[in-house]
Write a structure and sequence with these properties.
The structure is a homohexamer of 318-residue chains. Chain A has a single domain, classed as 3-Layer(aba) Sandwich (Arginase, Chain A), CATH 3.40.800. In chain A, strands 4-1-5-10-9-6-7-8 form an 8-stranded parallel sheet, with helices on both faces. In chain A, strand 9, helix 8 and strand 10 form a beta-alpha-beta unit. Chain A contains 9 helices and 10 strands. Chain A has 318 residues and is an alpha/beta fold. In chain A, helix 8 packs parallel to helix 9. Chain A is globular and about 60 Å long. At the B-E interface, helix 1 and strand 4 of B face helix 1 and strand 4 of E. Chains A, B, C, D, E, F: InterPro entries: Agmatinase-rel, Ureohydrolase, Ureohydrolase_dom_sf, Ureohydrolase_Mn_BS. Chains A, B, C, D, E, F: Belongs to the arginase family. Agmatinase subfamily. Chains A, B, C, D, E, F: Its EC number is 3.5.3.11.
């Protein structure tokens, strides 16, 4: 939507215009996706166990992302001396949101899966905006007919609960559901810390099912390079980012904050490294709850992180 | 919990102490309910169609209600010249909340119904704190073995949708579900206004199933006495109060606000009139979402209204 | 944008999807406006004299308007027994925003005028979302080649300052600028109250230039019918709504709040009456500043009012 | 402070400059008060029984009052056709605040009394900005050597508690303390409603000590003229305004909100009537707590009310 | 309160149920304390010198602590590979709050002391939730008949003012009051930084009375182990945590924030070290003011820190 | 304003009294500046490209600065063992604000320049409180008749845009405008990071015009001493601090936040080093937007930083 022009062109300040992701074009017809990256909202939050409100995550991230649309000539990073997302060659579309049906988790999840499958069929990389972390379940489901993936998670919580009171599709379950897939070849779970919904057995199960678990402090002791070395090289990576993997000081707008999380650059350097180590084939960013984000820090973080990540994915892929 | 005493007694200011409803005693053992009124929280909000957050309704109403606990000698109303809720004879307990299972509407509703049935079995009047308006469905279900009731609703929305996309238990459906019960003898729906989730057919269905529908402006033209006259006299009333029946100026903290609602005294005088016209046998107050209630107006309204209503129910019953 | 469909149709809850006005289609090509009503954002606020932030008015009103998009079958009003905005025949488009150039009032205003002229040329009714009240100046300018209009203003302030410290295009000047046009045949200024930026001379000038000024209390004493009678019948009306004409209790999110303003129904009934008394040919709604609207009351009011007004304009015109 | 001038004069918009009350001059030397009205802050809030924060009342009211300083030529009211507060003849000073000593109620109250006595000695009318309602106690004390006064209170609460747990100088006690003075000839207590900290005995005591008590609904039934008639004519009035006498919809920023309060014009018309009925010799406005006033409605109300009241006091006195 | 059970057990999500500390049982009868740890609220804030509101600290910390109650099987920490707070053996009770008397500092402090003495008499470890830092004074007083303690303080401010304007019991005085006790054998004051209420003489007095003072930067240069080594080993420690010792980025909700504070893990590692170095015999955590904590970061920090600290105290004691 | 005294002196707590900067005296007569440091507000924000609201920066920083006025004996820093800002010898005045004319950038900037010239003429060091970063343009203009200066900038953004859509005086242009001056001998731009409004050409232009650009990560790798070494020694420094140079976790209240910014001590140590390396002859601190600063972290940071910086400037100058 940034290509609008009348006689004299437009300055197109961030606060001007319809809020699509990064002000990229809106494509409501999911049979006409022609893009390298397709953004899909998944505004589902019935899977939360504490604060709700992640249903407004997609809308709020889109709004914050407009701040990062004002480099028309692309996003120049003086530290890397690279212009990411050059206007001429960047093909990103915003598909709007999957349809959500209140009271009905199964149908809502099915609708998300439907959208991700459309993106994959079109050959684009899906970038899904949650919603709570349970939306990762249909995202991973949608990869069932693709080549195997290695899952990289940034999160405060292990999310490896099998079942509790019958619940298997809440926001505490997605990594367990993913690990059960034969096309998920392994998991790297980073940022896991403190008391969590997952008990000791969950950690044991995760490790036995192929998971490498690192806390924030362990990540810091190792350094980002050593952490990247633990991730299998040259693979297809699906990256799931729970915003609560970051510190509450920069990500207060989330449902289950946990102190002691990552800084912005720790996250960015890990994501940057992944784009150079293999192929990122899918992304979701979840648990942004704008009702608890009065200054917009969290949505700004989500938008800043995703646009930098997408820029690097597109720049470093061959 | 207001009866605590050490050597010199306690002043027990509102900001002091555990926040139960009105600082009345907490009774976690639902087989030992000995009270005239039993308060139950129903922190369920997966039935919402716009903003979530009503899951924190019960906790926030309890907190606000502590402001109205500091008349130890009861609540003296100088206009009525009556002391409501006299400490000696008032038997109110707080049962805590029904258990909620994320992602699972049916089980959550069943747990609410379980609690209300316990209260009814104990001979107490249930006062249920929502949660979204769908929690009215299990509340009404719980009356299946009691004498028939007439349902009085204060609300901006008709909530009379039969089914849409398979949803029959969301917050747009409860009045339809109630009207289907043979032990619900009629409905009076007051405050209904503006565009709503209910289409013209819903209004026709409601009227054909025994509903009397009044907007805020119609209420004002008639006056409270004439409105009361339209409600069958001498009946058992179940009263469901959607806080969005009140004006957004005093009830901003709700999911689907609708301008043009009731003032406080319009609501109070209607409720006061009901206590004199028949027997109030059950109450729910729903859709309080404290994340949108930065100054506490909405929770204060809910607490002030409920304590005044309960006081009048207990005073006027014979 | 509400017409999206995949295999099973969409429930399209308000929190789902890209936020255009009322979820109506986005038309970025202003040479292809095919609609009865065209919505244009004018996110300009350098004309404010106290709090800024009205630049986020258009975006926030769009977001709030999604709440009122969920009657797919149109907006049924049970008091009027009319279904406004029936899906089949309603042609509304959202044009996005006029381009704003920071530090440059003249260019920003010119861009707004450019957009309104495009709408008028297409034969649609412009509905402009401010921005501060100075955006009314380019809106009125754009009518220079149309038939004359009578201007109806809802506002707390007279906005009739001629010039002060060289400022002629700030938010205190628009009504003076309008009155100077020969195609503005008269003004009705309603809601004016309290201390204002306009001194006694301004009131005298306004009256001498054809203005009828009424305070909120004068409006109430007269009643809405008598007020309507003072507006010339059968004319073309341009309606400018400063949200601060409404009471701060329902419109806190504005730059210069003034206590003692209108209720929702006072405003609605006046607007409803206008649609029956003549032709509404242009509308702007200004001064919504969402940074001061923590619960969304003000944006909800703006959206609810506009959708009801547009529905009535389209229903009652012949 | 509004008289500042450099070469070209100043526009002096409300957001510009040091925030004194109404941008009137700051006079830190209390032995040099030369004014008709002297404003004194009393930022004391240890007397509150629920929410604190009224200590920031004076500072926040000053800040809001800058909005009403931009009519340099005075405040023209088109309904009254009077220019209040004409710049040439208006002598108002801001004395800053009385010194407050944390943990020490007696000393803090003494410092407030000291300031009010200085004002009275200078022949000015004291306008005291609270702080909680207990600051009325030292204000009234300061009148001990003046002619008798009749006390008019706008409030939700009777504040007539004699003593509880040893407390005699909290915000529930001031009217009792005032009634005990021989130079307080009577009280008119208006707006009193709902459950209060005062029990039935308090009401009886108040009436027996010369108080006339009216609720909001009683006020409305009588009308403002009849209410004014109940106040002894031609007397010296001390007016104490608890902001919670007004409705929470316009005054959410207060410690103990009570629904069902006054509108702005009800308050203004009562105050306006007082200025014509006798001499207002002292004013306090208390219980503004800006931490609960996110949109500034309450501070705006306080400032708007006080400036209008002061303008009328000065205009109507002979 | 987490042991509630009906037929099928409860999931007991954090947002469900009465908010006691960690959802541990409420014990209103202070003569029946049977626990290892007893939590007492001290909602007193008349000792503050800037922002008030710490009176709501206990209630808000309890509410936040419910997030950390959902590991029914205890709190498994994968970094330590320890399950803290195992459900079977953990005996924690919540006593509610000490009674507070507005305007009366001495009586309020006496009531806090009364409660702590009850806890000590019962052989439990007191964990006191402030309230402002002055509540440490009665807490330390209550240890007068116990074995001597070494006081460890985490704070931005030295709080070592002797007397100013007669104030000896405000929130700037507690460490001075403690140092005067013969049963306080020494102080370690950590985190002290920047401009403070304490002048140079205060620092000299503190050092001469046995205090070891470290700033955040000094702490960082030394490292946590070296800091622990400066604290006498094998002693009984009383730990007082002023939340403003932590950085405003994670603890904005406090009265006198000071930039440059501790991160979460710096605090946790210090506390963890203490539990291994000696016996922690008392704890208070003060100055949480939820009115400034819009996202709940501060209350979450307080709850997360306390539950981790208590878990380690109970795990490491012999 | 802190020197007020009545019979017994004043405690002068931070929440008491008129909010001038640091409670230093207000000097409205700009021809009578007798001070070492003169504080001037520049509440201009029409130059912003995203969120507005910096017009309230001066007022909000003044308010926050009162927290740091309560060391009457000066500001003792125990790490440096220095008492900064000793009461006896510190001469700081607050001049209030430059006059701002809405809609008129050129006149508003001229008024700021006028004020800074007055300060320079009086021989004082100007400390200007923004307002957006465009206010730096008139500040630098005012130095045209002084000795040359080296400009040190702390910022997330390069602000080196030459012209775009005719805009040359917005908040993206000031460093370009400064670099064009012959009396600006060089620039050191620190903290620059991420996507910015400045494209690659801007960086090249900056370097070619004498700028040294360092990101936060580059600053950290070098260390503060090495960074200081890159700044020419013994020069006159003008320091411009954009609050968004700091991390959003401590400075959320700003218009265009950028994650990954400085901590408090990184900023302070750089500023401290400058005061020892040469002469600081002018300072501005810009882009504080209190509407996004709900807990006051940002204004506290601004005030804490400025008072510490001023203290060091005055202490270390010879």
């Amino acid at each position: 939507m940034s290509s609008h022009g009348y006689e004299t062109g437009r300055l197109n300040l961030p606060f001007v215009g319809i809020a699509t992701f990064g002000k990229y074009p809106y494509q409501p017809d999911w049979d006409k996706i022609e893009a390298d990256v397709a953004v899909l909202g998944a505004p589902f939050d019935f899977g939360t166990q504490f604060r709700a409100g992640a249903r407004f995550g997609p809308r709020s991230i889109r709004e914050a992302s407009t701040l990062f649309s004002f480099g028309h000539g692309g996003a120049y990073d003086h530290e890397d001396d690279i212009t990411y997302l050059p206007a001429e060659t960047t093909r990103i579309v915003d598909l709007g949101d999957a349809d959500i049906v209140h009271t009905d988790t199964a149908q809502s999840h099915a609708n998300i899966e439907f959208g991700v499958r459309k993106i994959l069929k079109a050959g684009a990389i899906p970038v899904v905006l949650g919603g709570d972390h349970s939306v990762n379940i249909p995202c991973i489901n949608a990869f069932s007919e693709d080549e195997p993936v290695h899952l990289v998670q940034i999160d405060a919580h292990l999310d490896f609960v099998d079942e509790r009171h019958g619940v298997r599709s809440g926001h505490g379950n997605p990594m367990r559901r993913a690990a059960e897939k034969d096309y998920v070849t392994g998991l790297t779970q980073i940022g896991i810390r403190n008391v969590s919904s997952t008990a000791r057995e969950g950690y044991e199960a995760a490790r036995s099912m192929g998971s490498d678990i690192l806390s924030v402090r362990q990540f810091r002791k190792l350094g980002v390079e050593a952490v990247l070395d633990r991730i299998p090289a040259g693979k297809r990576y699906y990256v799931t980012i729970d915003i609560d993997g970051f510190d509450p000081s920069i990500a207060p707008g989330t449902g289950t904050p946990s102190h002691g999380g990552f800084t912005y650059y720790e996250g960015l350097e890990l994501l940057d490294g992944l784009t150079k180590r293999g192929s990122v084939v899918g992304v979701d960013l979840v648990e942004v709850a704008p009702d608890y984000d009065h200054a917009g820090c969290t949505t700004t973080l989500a938008a800043q992180l995703l646009l930098n990540f997408i820029g690097r994915i597109l720049h470093h892929r061959t």
